[in-house]
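tool=predict chain=A
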Amino acid sequence: MNKGFRKYFYLFVLALVLIPGENVFAADEYDTFNKFCLDNFGTKQEELYFTKFGKDLLQDEKNSWQYVSENSACISWETSLPAKSCVEYGTTDKYGAKTEEEERYFFTHVLYLKDLTVDTTYHYRLVSVDERGNQVTSADKTLETKKAANAVYIPDEAGKINYLLDTPQKTYILTKDIKVDEEGFDVIAENVTFDLNGHTIRYDFEAGVKADNAKKFKIVNGFIKQEAGGIMSGNNRHDAFNPLTLRSCADVEIAGLSIDYSSPQTWGMHIRDQKETCNVHNNIILDRGSVIPNRHSFAVRSIGFDGGEKGLNKYSLHHNLIKRARQNGVQTAQTIYNNEIYIDSFSTNSFAIQPHSVPDTEAGEHYNNKVFGTGFNAYGFGWAHLNLKIHDNFVFMQGFDTKSRWNETWGDINMLSAMRVTNYDKGGQVRNNLDYRNNVIVMKGREGCEIRGVEFMSDISIKDLVFHDNIIKVEAQDDKTSRVACVDPQGQVANNDTALPVYYKNNTLISNMYHIRFGDTYGVGSNHQFINCKFVRTGNNPKYHTFVFDGGHWSHRHVFLDCEFGEGTKYNDVFWKRTSAKSSYSVKWTLTVKSEPKASVTIIDKRGRIEYTGKTDAEGKVSAVLTQCLIKPPANMKGDEPNNDKHQEVEYTPHSIIVEKNGVTKRVKVTMDKKQEVEIKME
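tool=predict ok
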């Protein structure tokens, strides 16, 4: 198609789907967001950085990567704590040149050495400085630039720019910064490497780089920058104007790219119908925009898969730095690890990481990610159907009043949550084996925002959801902010009597407002069980309570087993804010009975109910879970009468223990207000 005709035809077609005039293109949001991060997300604002990562600034050699081109090199590494980093380099160990300093403190560093001479050895060293002024400098290292085999240069010696990369087994190398025409670069051959050689591709029309049906395609080491404006300002399509678009490709590697864009509905990388492997790593994605015409379906993503493998996939996303995303970060890949992602939410449902969620398909493993979030409605991690593993991640979110940032006026306004599992409508969606472990979560809020550390739904179809060995810290930062809790146990009210348990085991929960908020405007569930959890109170907020019941419906069958209630917290410190008189929870403890081997043990509670029967093992031990009390609203609370901090405590202890063996019977009484062991001799 003639380029001129093609351009105006494309403009005409796109005009048919433009968003309404009132949704105009917004200005660059990044400078404001960068300052927000500097003010709110540093180690000076939160000590749990040091709990998670240690106090010493270290450069992680195991998580380093480099790509050396003819005239440039991309070097990437991680630091143990956020740092500003640079690379000093030169032809001797005196260096003489250095990369640009980063604009804020990051864990992940992707830096570019430019204007190198081919067939030359360079010395370099990595320099990192944290917020405290501590500096770490690596040992002297070397790299060597070499002439590439089977190279095709863009432009060529005659100055011609070949936009169609159609020769197999070639390395196409940029030799200067290029402003592309409306077609952009298009890769259609097999076994092609597109080496940007540290240069920048700028585009202002359809796309920066496209690849169609390309197998064994690699794109590395350079910049793709969108020059937004004009026709882009009215875009409402997720498959238009993207810096990098791949369609029906197989065995792809994308590494060492720095992608910068701002137009409405744009994705940083749009990967459609991907086949076989896709390895996306050590890239920088910067979304400067704010306009989201459609938050649903494909929405807006920094790195996104559209279609592709329906079952298990071979996609991997790792060591990427997403400096800002207006809605979603990454999704779908079977493994997502060691990424650093910043969400500045401009719509409902903005997820940093969305797992592969297909019925009867394993969701994969997501670990060692650093996730930061703020804005209208940001989430750290979404949910999946089967065998999801989320572990060893660090999540830090800061809430505030975003005012008129998004046009929906219902639901989760100015609400942040680190991890979420939701069943929609009447529930029943199947979700099995969702495992969350060794994560550190920090959530802070001000100006009346809402903070949910984690929000998991219980349902008859959600089985083996276990959240264990994690730390959650939440903090209300002013008097306007009260909807703040480490855990929001949600669910479908219709299934409250039959919902399967959600387990929280061996977690440390830290709060200055509420630790557990049983129910909210989004869901009210039952059968959430807290086992061996530690409750830590901070500050002296007079509105503080250990537990609050909210959401306007009844909620019951909750259990606290062998929990540690620290100073200022209590097992019976509960505020009935907006709930039913039917709501309740139980406090239970484990009793270990030591006696003769194979002895019969019966335990009867204060009300004459047999709570346990069984036998001691070969060592003469048996353990039983016994109820101390049931906590429920005061007898005079009617319906959903609000703001009541009184309660009824139905006692089930002391308990009678009866041990029998060989015609000998022994009886002992014990008060179950803590985890304990009792020895009963049969003499």
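DSSP finds three helices and 57 strands in the chain. The two ends are 99 Å apart (CA to CA).
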